[in-house]
Every structure is written in structure tokens, then in C-alpha cells.
Write a structure and sequence with these properties.
- The chain is of the alpha+beta class.
- The chain folds into two domains: about 1-20 and about 130-258, no CATH class; about 25-130, no CATH class.
- Helix content is about 20%, strand content about 40%.
- The protein contains four helices and nine strands.
- A nine-stranded antiparallel beta sheet has the order 2-3-4-5-1-6-9-8-7, with helices on one face.
- α1 packs across α2 (about 110-130).
- The radius of gyration is 21 Å and the shape is globular.
Length: about 260
């Protein structure tokens, strides 16, 4: 397996560590609010998350009823520590089904992400008291800025995992999107890669999203500290797929100002 390389200007825009759980009976919004209170010193910007559902009933072929249901289902919190641009680089979202913890650009390293996510998880686990784990996942959303003079690129020059376009097809692609789903037999897990152009931040580049999601679903497994070593293994596979998907020409961009 290919080990990850620490690039001076890695293209990571968001790294997400996700833990899904089986909630205990009787868990309330007030319990989740206690989690945010315990973390208030580091995550002071807190807002409630509401879920809306629309129920449509058919009375007869010509008459229907509509009912909108809304309720609080969790919280979204941003770090109190801002980066040089005045934005929060750490975000967590909690609800009865688990925790999602994100690091935004500038992403420091895996140890930083893992340590900060564990601090939030420890408080969530203590108060929410979930009964089992149902999913562990790591998702890395990359934006790769590729220089261009005419607004087009030859995808094969930059990506090893992409669409195979015949030489006589008619020239470089104006647009593309692809998804790959790859099993990870060693872990009983899966990797999903999505990639395609996104709006560029400046002229003279083609911006390409390269989104890697590695995860393991269970029916239920007991809570365990071993899940953090499992995250380490998921990360190694994420790095493997990242390195194998890009050409050397692309990787050279990460030593510049991408």
C-alpha cells in the first residue's frame, strides 16, 4: 500500500471524520445541548439544526392534504479559534445518530484532526451514551487547481483514474464527472471517489474536485477505543487511493501555491 506524503500545499478543502451510532432510548435535544455547553470554550459559535418533513396524503383522486413537520435534531458548532482569514477551521455537527467533525483549509495534519475529533467524541459519548457504532468514515474533499491557457485540460495528463477518451474523439473534454466505488477487502470497507470540475477561484486555471470517501458500515458493533486505530487504517487506504489516482505532474502542483 502506498503511504501518504505530506505536501506543503495539499489541496484539501475539507477533511471529515464521521461516526454514526445507534442512539440510546430517550435521548433528547436537551442532552445534545449539554454537549455543546461542555465544549463552549472551544466551540462558541453554536446553532441548532432543524429537520423538516412534508407528509402528503391522498383523500381521493382529486384531493390531497399536505402537512409540514419541523423539529430540532441536533447542533452545528464552529471553533472559537479563527484562522488568518477570520474563519473557523474546525466544525462539528452532532445529532442522535452521531458526530461529524470537519477540518477546513488550512488543514494541518491527521494527528490534529484525530485529536480534536476525539475530544468532541469523548464528550458526546459521555452525555449521549450511544449503544453501538453503525458506521465509521473519513472523507477528504480536495480542489486541485490546474493551470491552463485556454480553459481546457487533457484529463489524462493529471489523473490516472478518469474517463478513457479515445485519441480520435475530438480533443480535450469541456466537462467531465466520474464516480468510482472500490471495495477494501482487508477492512471490509469501501472507497467512493467522485471527481469533476468546479468553479475556479481565479482565472487561468481549471479547478477539479477530487472527493475521496472511505468508510465501513456495520449493523451494530460495540463501542470501543479500537475505532481510533481503525480510523488510522482507513486513512492509510485514503492516502493510497489519492496517491495512485494522480499523475506526478499533478503532485508537483502541491509544492507550489495550489
Amino acid at each position: 500500500m502506498t503511504e501518504g506524503i505530506i505536501y506543503p500545499n495539499a489541496p484539501i478543502r475539507e477533511a471529515v471524520l464521521d461516526i454514526r451510532v445507534q442512539p440510546r432510548a430517550g435521548l433528547t435535544q436537551a442532552d445534545l445541548e449539554r454537549v455543546t455547553t461542555e465544549l463552549k470554550a472551544d466551540y462558541s459559535q453554536v446553532q441548532g439544526v432543524r429537520q423538516m418533513m412534508v407528509e402528503v396524503g391522498l383523500i381521493d383522486p382529486n384531493t390531497s392534504t399536505t402537512k409540514t413537520l419541523a423539529g430540532d435534531v441536533g447542533f452545528l458548532a464552529h471553533s472559537s479559534i479563527l484562522d488568518s482569514a477570520g474563519t473557523s477551521s474546525s466544525v462539528y455537527k452532532i445529532d442522535p445518530t452521531g458526530l461529524s467533525f470537519s477540518k477546513l483549509k488550512p488543514y494541518r495534519d491527521w494527528r490534529d484532526l484525530k485529536a480534536d475529533a476525539k475530544k468532541v467524541w469523548d464528550i458526546y459519548e459521555q452525555i449521549a451514551q450511544p449503544t453501538a457504532i453503525t458506521r465509521l468514515g473519513l472523507r477528504y474533499v480536495n480542489r486541485i487547481d490546474i493551470p491552463t491557457t485556454d480553459g481546457k485540460i487533457d484529463v489524462a495528463d493529471w489523473f490516472r483514474t478518469t474517463l478513457d477518451v479515445p485519441d480520435d474523439f475530438g480533443g480535450p473534454l469541456n466537462h467531465f464527472f466520474f464516480q468510482m466505488q472500490v471495495p477494501i477487502a482487508e477492512l471490509g470497507a469501501e472507497c467512493v471517489i467522485n471527481s469533476g470540475p468546479v468553479p475556479p477561484a481565479r482565472t487561468g486555471i481549471v479547478a477539479v474536485m477530487f472527493d475521496i470517501d472511505v468508510f465501513k458500515d456495520w449493523t451494530t458493533v460495540p463501542l470501543s477505543e479500537d475505532m481510533w486505530s481503525y480510523f488510522d487504517r482507513l486513512r492509510k487506504w485514503k492516502n493510497h487511493f489519492f496517491e495512485k489516482s494522480l499523475t506526478d505532474r499533478t503532485k508537483e502542483l502541491f509544492y507550489g501555491g495550489n
